[in-house]
Each structure stands twice: as C-alpha cells, then as structure tokens.
Design goal:
Structural class: mainly alpha
Number of strands: 7
Radius of gyration: 27 Å
Oligomer: single chain
Shape: globular
Number of helices: 26
Helix content: 55-70%
Length: 714
C-alpha cells in the first residue's frame, strides 16, 4: 500500500517498508510510539524475548528488593514480598509523576522504592521486625524455581509460535490500547487511565500497574508490544505467583515439615489449570491475573501476623500488630493497583479465619488479657465491615444495583451458565478446569486432585480447618456461577461479574498449599514405612520427587487436552482475513504505514469492532475509539451514530474538528461477529457504504479514506 498523492487515482500495494518499535519523546508530555516493529520479524523465536523477560522480572523485583533491604527475610518470603512492593512502586510512580506533569518512565519506580526503603529502615530501628523468617536452601530452591517457571512457559505458549503475537480477545483490545496510550501520552496514573474509554470524565479510575509494567519493558528494551506483554505474563508467574504460593504454603503448613515446603510448593504452583493458565485464554484478563498472583502474599501476611501475636508475649503485641498492618496494607495496595475487584476474593478467603479469631478472642477474653484479645478482634471486625461497606457501595454506586432488577443483569458470555452443578463439583474435585475456549474442560489431573484431597484431610486433622472452609466457599461460588443463572447466584457472585474463570483462578491460591500439605503427608507416611527405612529414603527428597511427578503429569494433561491449544487459538494471527479476530497480519502492516499519511497530531476514525481500535498500538496513530465499549463524550457519540449525515448536519464537522479527525480507516470484518449488544458504531460503516469519502489507500479488505467535507484542519 502506498500513499495516495492524486485524489482521483487509487494506489494499491504495500507501504513498502518494515519498521521496528521505538519510543521518542515528542514533548514534555507526549511520547511518540513510533511504528518501528509492530511484530517481531526475526527468526529467533522465543529466544528474542529473553531481554524483555529479564527486564520484566527486574521491574517486578528490583524496586521491592530495594525497599525491603533493611529487613531480615528468607529467600522465598523476600521474593514474594518484593513482588508486591514492586507493584506498589510502579503504580504509585504512575500517579505521583503524572500529578507532577512528568511522563512515565521505568526509573520512577526506583524513586518510590528508595522512599519505602528509608521508611522501612526508620521503622525497623525503633520497632524491629518481630517475625523470624524460615531458613531456605537457596540452591535447590532456585533450581526448582527455574524449572517450574520454564514449565509454565512451555504449557502456556507451546502453541504460540512468536513472542510478539497478542491475545485477540475483547478485554485485550482495551489493555493494549492502554499500554499504547501510556507510551504516547506519558500518563500512567490509575486515577485517569479509564479516561481512555470514559472520555466524558476528568477522573476515571482503572488500575495501571499491568500496563505500566509492559510500558517499562518497551521503554527499556525496545520490544514489540506483544513481546513486552507476554514477557510480563511469564515474569509475573515466575517472580510473583510461584514465590507467593510457596511462601503461603510455608506460612500455612505446620513447621514440622521445615524447609522442604517451598521445594514442594514451587512445582505445584505450575500444576493447576485454573491459575495461571485460564486467565491467559479467557478475557484475556491480565490485571485480574496479576492481582490473583499477588493474593498469596496478601493472605500470608495477616495469617503470619496472627500466629506471631498468638505466641508472643503481651509486650510484643503492639509491634506485631503494627508490622502486620503495614504488610497487609502494602499487599492490598499492590492488589488495588492491579485489579481492585480481587480484594473481594481476598476478603472471602480470609473471612472464615477472621470470624474464627473474633469468636475465639471473645471466648478467651475472660481468661486472658482482655485488652489484647478485644483490641485485635476490633481490628479484624473493622476490616471485615470496611470491605463489606465498600462492596455494597460498589454495587449501588458503580453497578447501579437499585436501578434495574438483578435478574436482568450479568447475562454476558462470562456469566452464562454452561454446565450442570454436578459437572462443576466434579471439576473442583478432579482438577479438571475450563480452558476459556469452548465448553469442554481438560481431562482430570487425578494425581493433583489426590494431593489436594490428602492435604485437606491433613489440614482438618491439623486444626487448619479455615483453609478448607475458605477453599470450599470459593469452590461453591464457582460451581454455581458455572452452573446456575438464578437470581441468588447472581447476588452471590456479582462482585466477580458472575465469572466462573475469575472465581476458579483463585482456588489454587490455597490449592497449592493444600496439595503441598498432601504431598508432604504422604511422603512422611512412606518414609516411615519399614521398607523405606531399610533403603534410607528421607521424607524430604521423596516429597520433592513426588511433587515433580504430580506436576509433570498435570502439565502433560493440560498441554494435551486443551490448555495450550486454547491459548494458541486466542493468539492466532490470520494472514489476510481477520475473520472474528481483532486484526490480521495484513491489517497490522496496513496500520504500520498509516503514520506516513495521517498528519501528526490527528486522530483516525473507525468502527473499533473492525480492528481500528489498535491503530495506535500498531501504527502510532491515535484512534477516536480505542476500545469496543466505553462511555463517550458528545463529539464521539456524534461520529459513532451520525457520521453519514456529514453533508446535512453541521454538528458532524464540529465534532471532527474538535477531535482533530480527517481520516477514516475501515475493514469489512468484525471482532467476534460484531457487538452482541447491538451496533453502537453505525456511523463509520454507513458513511463508507454511502461513498462519502475519498479512498486514499487499501490493502485487501482494509481501506483508508480522507474526509474532505469539512475542509482542512487548522
């Protein structure tokens, strides 16, 4: 495709150039994401993604490691907490530097981390950290860690041939547009990110941590946007999810099992189909995935604090409560900067132990220190009440709970019941999970299921019943969300959009600990047997070997029965006809050359359902509609609905002038077959069908038109 120089003749062909991603500052507030590689065209495959992967891992660890440097912590605990603190640093940097008028850059998270480090040093001098960390065996732990991370990468991306490919799903239209917007405008504030699709508001909150992470990777490595996103996902599983799940297992499982717990839990963190894999195929829900990966830390901190307080002297109570509060606030802040809705999952999982602690404290109040027990009980109750009030406010103010019947709500694809109740029960018991593409679940992972059940039995006997109750509560919500559409189910699961994938993805948060407990229990029983004592097999090495056998069997089951294929399906990139995907390779190449035609500072109009929402992502030209859904201002609504009236209605030219638009991009396909709730962007298609604009360039089914009716822009 070539630029049209004579309006009366049409040039058809290629733009005639290949490019690679660069990012150069256009001004103090605007970063031009140049169209220098929409896709990675090298032959190195996934090897080419290694710089981006290492950069993403560094951004998820370095700020946190700096902040936690003054504290004594074990390897697994330090890494898990560092992931949460790094997310807080990245999210806070976006807000603070946006307010200061400084475009987002990767180094800003280090400034926030240094401030947090100074605060930790100052507090630790006056109130030393009371929690004594476990001793880790670093070499075997690191080996197990690397192998588990690699296994996740293989299962997740076995059917994705290039690291620069992107998930072509509804939610990812917004997520990629948000990353491109941060690169283009320099604003990574969570306070304004949703303004991308709520253009009639000055304050529009949407958590920006995920998008800022990908932006930082692009800025430092020059990676394509798809490579940066995929590297961020892999790094999150490796340095946030796996250490977090292993540390929670260390906190929950009795101390008798010692340092073997992490070695057992790390591989098991790669064995569950519901997390981390399902949210990569379904949605794709990157912010929810990041927040869920942070849940183990957010649960481990208050549980560890309660245990420390229960066993400490009365004089230590205030110090333990203080550090527990600081750690919990930091972990929850990380979840909030990732996806605040996951706080509801956190509250649900901690509700059983919180209720148990409160009841036990009141019972013991007559026999022990009343001030100590009642004080902690009031704190617990205050947190529970605050979460409940926040949830109710959200349902009334944001979901308009009182405006229309609940029965009319939650009918989208994520909320539709697709199986019977008993099928859901079987999936929970057999670890046979929905993949996000199609209705068939994976085959049962029977060894993993047996480990979870054995762990539940051990937890019940070991007075860890809250773990089982919390796991069961979440499982029940998943079962009903997947198998029922009645009004009671909608009420119970509304905070999760009645989304079975969001609910099932949180089960492994406790499932890893249960499976690890089961493996350790079985290994100890085998080691105690007469034959094992003759051979001299210890329970520790046996447990680690058993965990890896279970993980390998589960990974093979997932890879062969739907997980890898489902992820490959949503990452598939058609060559020419996009069909029901967002874009095709030919359309990306078309977008890549649009910057040579559309003048700098102008937007391009289009129906976002035909891929035009990604013109900034792949072409460096800002679209009028960066997502297929939004709350648009009056000018955008005029163009969406009445563009075809351009020659009769002066308001159309007024809107085009206000939004600085003189070009329209068009393609014949629609994502998913079109908007299921009705066509909310008829204007561009009707105008093209009426032949109102001048064709400038075309390639296959994609065309670029110039709008001449309103004259030149100033």
């Amino acid at each position: 495709m070539r630029r049209q120089t004579n309006p009366t003749s049409i040039s058809v062909g290629a733009w005639g150039r290949t490019s690679t991603w660069t990012c150069t500052w256009r001004s103090a507030r605007r970063c031009r994401c140049g169209t220098t590689s929409s896709l990675d065209v090298t032959d190195d495959g996934w090897i080419s993604a290694l710089p981006a992967l290492f950069a993403a891992a560094a951004f998820l660890q370095l700020p946190g490691q700096i902040a936690l440097a003054p504290l004594r912590l074990g390897l697994v605990a330090r890494t898990a907490l560092a992931g949460a603190v790094s997310i807080v640093s990245i999210g806070a940097a976006g807000v603070v530097f946006s307010f200061a008028g400084v475009p987002f850059a990767a180094w800003q998270a280090l400034i926030i981390a240094a401030i947090l480090a100074a605060a930790c040093w100052f507090i630790a001098r006056r109130a030393p950290l009371p929690l004594v960390p476990r001793t880790n065996r670093p070499v075997p732990t690191l080996v197990s860690w690397v192998l588990a991370s690699a296994l996740i990468g293989v299962v997740a991306f076995a059917a994705v041939p290039q690291p620069s490919l992107v998930s072509q799903t509804y939610d990812n239209v917004f997520h990629l547009s948000a990353i491109a917007s941060i690169l283009d405008h320099g604003d990574a504030s969570s306070a304004t990110l949703r303004g991308l699709i709520e253009t009639d508001r000055s304050f529009a909150f949407y958590p920006s941590a995920w998008h800022s992470l990908a932006t930082a990777v692009i800025q430092t490595t020059g990676a394509p946007i798809g490579t940066a996103v995929n590297a961020g996902w892999l790094a999150t599983t490796a340095v946030v999810w796996l250490p977090g799940a292993a540390w929670l297992a260390e906190v929950v499982i009795p101390r008798a099992h010692g340092t073997t717990v992490a070695l057992v839990a790390l591989p098991l963190g790669a064995a569950f189909g519901a997390m981390p894999y399902a949210l990569l195929a379904w949605g794709t829900l990157y912010p929810t995935f990041l927040a869920t990966a942070l849940l183990p830390v957010a649960i481990a901190v208050p549980v560890l604090g309660w245990r420390a307080m229960r066993n400490a002297a009365p004089a230590e109570g205030a110090r333990i409560i203080g550090w527990t509060a600081v750690g919990t606030v930091m972990a929850l802040s990380a979840v909030m900067f990732s996806q605040p809705r996951v706080v509801a999952t956190w509250a649900l999982l901690l509700a059983p132990p919180a209720i148990g602690i409160a009841g036990g404290a009141f019972r013991r109040g007559r026999r022990a220190s009343l001030r100590r027990t009642v004080g902690f009980t009031l704190i617990v109750l205050a947190v529970v009440v605050s979460v409940a009030v926040a949830a109710l406010w959200y349902l009334i103010a944001r979901v308009d709970l009182l405006e229309r019947p609940v029965d009319d709500r939650l009918g989208g694809p994520q909320a539709q019941a697709m199986q019977s109740i008993w099928q859901g029960v079987w999936q929970v018991l057999s670890q046979s999970w929905l993949t996000g593409v199609g209705a068939a679940p994976t085959w049962p992972a029977l060894l993993l299921a047996a480990a979870v059940i054995c762990g539940a039995i051990g937890a019940w006997r070991g007075r860890l019943r809250w773990v089982i109750v919390s796991y069961a509560l979440l499982a029940v919500l998943f079962v009903f969300a997947a198998g029922s559409d009645d009004i009671l189910t909608k009420f119970a699961t509304g905070l999760w959009y009645k989304d079975k994938y969001r609910l099932s993805s949180a089960l492994p948060v406790l499932g890893v600990a249960l499976a690890a407990f089961g493996v350790l229990t079985v290994a100890a029983a085998i080691a105690r047997s007469r034959r094992s004592r003759r051979v001299g097999v210890g329970s520790g090495p046996l447990a680690v070997a058993l965990a890896w056998v279970i993980t390998a069997a589960s990974a093979l089951t997932m890879a062969l029965t739907g997980v890898s294929a489902s992820i490959g399906a949503v990452f598939a990139l058609p060559e020419h006809d996009a069909g029901q995907q967002v874009v095709s390779r030919a359309q990306i190449e078309f977008f890549d050359g649009m910057g040579d035609v559309v003048p700098e500072g102008q937007r391009v109009l289009g129906d976002p359902w035909d891929g035009s929402a990604w013109t900034l992502v792949f072409g460096g030209v800002e679209p009028v509609f960066p997502h297929v859904n939004g709350q648009w201002d009056a000018d955008r609504l005029t163009l969406a609905w009445r563009l075809a009236d351009i020659e009769e209605d002066p308001a159309v030219c007024t809107a085009l002038d206000a939004l600085r638009v003189r070009y329209l991009v068009y393609d014949t396909h629609e994502l998913g077959g079109g908007d299921p709730s009705g066509n909310h962007f008829p204007g561009p298609r009707e105008a093209v069908a009426a032949g109102l604009f001048t064709l400038v360039a075309s390639e296959g089914s994609t065309r670029l038109y110039r709008i001449d009716q309103c004259g030149e822009l100033d």
